[in-house]
Amino acid sequence: MPIPEGHYHELKHGRKFNPRERWIVPSAVVLVVAIAIAVGIAITVSGKQHKSHAGCIDVRAATAIGGSDLYRCGSQARALCTTPTPTGRSKDFLAFRLALADACRKAGLPVPAVRS
């Protein structure tokens, strides 16, 4: 197998990068660092969610047209928990009512009657 001309020189002194290769490597490093920063921020921010406790309720429920997120404390939470829930045929509405009842229990508030 013939060895190309300049083979020894390339092995001894290393190969020179062309201009395109010079900007691709730093760009890739910047991209990896940016992704690592974004993942780090996402991990630290996601832990700051409300929890149902001591008179505060946090209810999240998915429905057919989106989702619902309620966070109430004090008299607003008590009013939401003690209001009788209307009966509905929708399973989505039932899922929300069950999530509300669970949150009220965790907060130590009266639990609304859940009828299916």
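the 2nd protein, sequnce then structure:
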Amino acid sequence: MQYKLENPVHGTISTEKYQCTIEWRNGKFIADEPVISGGNDTGPDPYTLLLSSLASCTLVTMRMYIDRKGWTIPEIAVNVNMYKETKDEKTTTIVDRDIIFLNPVEEEQKTRLIEIAKQCPISKILEGDIKVRTFLFKDSETEKKINYSNDEITVVWKPTFCQHAARCWQQLPEVFDYKKNTG
């Protein structure tokens, strides 16, 4: 298992109603809820952040392709929105992405760029099988140590240092093969 980001996106909230500070590798920004939802609308709401990921990924993916092909397409825009639809007691989220060519573009290029847009990494994530796992990050003030020894070596495991051991154990069976290492 290898995470996409070297450092995770980090978010905090205090008592300012619904205003979150989101930190990423190069800085931070505010996310907030709109006034109608009880926030102060001082930053994008979670839906806007999700949709902006798709919009920016789509634009970047198409720009990379355009540049690689040497096409002259100076500007493209994308509108993204979403709604929910319920049929037979099953709710589905529908995301609509409109690609807008702001300059004349040949029909063949438009058709190809629509296909390229569908291949952007965020599109693939949103259309794929997603699992959101939630872990309780433990307080590191408790310094618990467990020693694993044999005749040659002692391994000291600090559970508070290795906060996500279950992730490694589950996703790296070739390293943590408990069946091979027991009995």
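The beta strands are 10-13, 20-24, 27-31, 76-87, 90-101, 146-149, 154-157. The mean pLDDT is 87.
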